[in-house]
Design a protein that fits this description.
- α6 (about 145-160) runs parallel beside α10 (about 235-255).
- This protein has 16 helices and 16 strands.
- It has about 425 residues and is an alpha+beta fold.
- The protein is about 40% helix and about 20% strand.
- The strands form 3 sheets. Strands 1-5-6-11-10-9-7-8 form an 8-stranded mixed sheet. It has a 5-stranded mixed sheet with strand order 13-12-14-15-16, sandwiched between helices. The protein has a 3-stranded antiparallel sheet with strand order 2-4-3.
- It folds into 2 domains: about 15-180 and about 235-320, BirA Bifunctional Protein, domain 2 (2-Layer Sandwich), CATH 3.30.930; about 330-420, 3-Layer(aba) Sandwich (Rossmann fold).
- The chain binds one RNA strand of 77 nucleotides through α1, α4, β6, β10 and β11.
Length: about 425
RNA sequence: GUGGGUGUAGCUCAACCGGUUAGAGCAUCGGACUGUGGAUCCGAAGGUUGGGGGUUCGAGUCUCCUCACCCACCCCA
């Protein structure tokens, strides 16, 4: 059928999604393993929440006014008539799980991490995908500013251990419900006073998200924004003290950071500490990692009054910066000649694999020459030769492909020589 | 959602002013080659030129629509 032919041809990954192929996936595995190990040393435990949640969860916690909720969610009605959403972020799921399982009764603070896919219906571009992956960490039930600093330090260590350079860590306090409204109002008034000097985008941002005016690219707007009030002057005593504490501990940890009073995050629930790690050389999608404190979220969500703090790190963006090289695979390639040898080759492969050695058996080649050629091409570290002579003798030939050295011996002796490192 | 750019073989690219059967390198597969290496030589396969309409005697080339990707805005990781 012609329709079959064309449908096969048109089959492609969904817009904004990507395959992670062998060769690249090893880098992901190396990064994930490194990160998991590090989080473990800071006392974090993995919590795997479902990829789908009730739509309401995100409306309530992420915030109905955010772009993420308003226009970027993958939402659908399931066969039971429920409104379901593929998670655009992870924090609400953790909050939900804590409430649902009363994890807060197990003792605080609760430290969780997770690595997995998130979904946002954005228009894809560099560093921005519809299915992307995040490393997420969250701490609940610890309000001391030391934990804010510990988390930022952990993020910093994570980047260092992965060999990431050329980034900058930005921190700010976005205040709380007591002090932020006054600031927003003051900012709106300041912007309103020079409304005619602002671009159309900024005039809109005056209403929706006044802090965003600060990172407008239009020169006129930048000029006006220089004299706008900054959050720092509006923080209530509690927020001010907390922020001072965060900075003190960051200094104690020796973390390099810059206070950025204009740093604002896109989700509604942030309070007090907000931070971001950005790459210095990138144009737009420069945020590698971002997070902050969300002291009211759990309570607003209908759970216990437990504060939280955490960050999300974009894996695609992180991996673009890491310099880890996964160690090359070293495997045995078994070549053979004749029916009896073929059976023996299969048997030997099983023995080697049980002994912990990656082993492949040639099935297609004819002569040893072509079998060796294939082994070399695939990058085999060793070739195990199983010919008629070897089968008769019960001793096989193991060739080191790098050095060309060949050693003859019984299967178990050859195996144990491979099990030794090197 | 708005704006710009690009679409030719698996990959990188050719194809004059619109003119014969859309070519090459690399990669793939086969052979030379039945006891030892990514070589060499020979050969094969691989394309509705992203898709659809229009102009034309004739379209990879001009035009319109559409789709995909890339880039930027918005927003974010």
């Amino acid at each position: 059928m012609s329709s079959e032919r064309s449908s096969v041809k048109e089959l492609a990954a969904v817009k904004g999604t990507h395959d992670i192929l062998p060769g690249e996936v090893e880098v992901w595995q190396a990064v994930e393993a490194s990160v998991v190990g590090m989080f473990g040393r800071y006392g974090y435990r993995e919590l795997r929440a479902p990829v789908i949640e009730h739509t309401e969860l995100f409306e309530k916690s992420t915030g109905e006014t955010t772009d993420v909720v308003q226009k970027e969610m993958y939402t659908f009605i399931d066969k039971g008539g429920r409104s379901i959403t593929l998670r655009p972020e992870y924090t609400p799921s953790v909050a939900r799980a804590i409430v649902e399982h009363r994890l807060d009764l197990l003792g605080t603070p609760m430290r969780y991490f997770y690595i997995g896919p998130m979904f946002r219906y954005d228009k894809p571009q560099k560093g921005r995908y519809r299915q992307f992956h995040q490393i997420d960490i969250e701490v609940f039930g610890e309000k001391d500013p030391a934990i804010d600093a510990e988390i930022i330090e952990m993020a910093d260590s994570m980047l260092v251990s992965l060999g990431v350079t050329g980034t900058e860590t930005l921190v700010n306090s976005v205040g709380c419900r007591a002090c932020r409204p006054a600031f927003s109002q003051a900012l709106r008034e300041a912007a309103g006073g020079v409304k005619d000097g602002l671009c159309g985008d900024c005039r809109r941002k005056m209403e929706t998200n006044p802090l965003r005016i600060f990172d407008c690219k239009v020169e006129a707007c930048r000029e006006q924004a220089k004299v706008f009030p900054q959050i720092t002057g509006f923080l209530c005593p509690e927020c001010r003290d907390h922020f001072a504490g965060v900075r003190r501990y960051l200094d104690l940890y020796g973390v390099a950071y810059r206070v950025e009073p204009n740093l604002v995050r896109g989700l509604d629930y942030y309070t007090k500490t907000a931070f971001e790690v950005v790459r210095l050389d990138a144009g737009q999608q420069n945020a590698v990692l971002g997070g902050g404190r969300y002291d009211d979220m759990m309570k607003d969500f209908g759970g216990p009054d437990v504060c939280g703090i955490g960050f999300a790190c974009g894996l695609e963006r992180l991996i673009a910066l890491v310099s880890v090289k996964p160690s090359p695979r070293r495997f045995v390639y078994v070549v053979h000649s004749g029916e009896a040898a073929r059976a023996k080759a299969v048997e030997l492969a099983r023995i080697f694999r049980r002994g912990g050695v990656e082993t492949l058996v040639e099935f297609a080649g004819r002569g040893f020459k072509s079998q060796f050629g294939r082994a070399a091409k695939l990058g085999a570290a060793w070739v195990l030769v199983v010919g008629e002579d070897e089968v008769a003798k019960g001793e096989f030939l193991l060739k080191d492909m790098a050095t060309g050295t060949q050693t003859s011996g019984k299967a178990e002796d050859l195996l144990s020589s491979l099990q030794r490192p090197g």
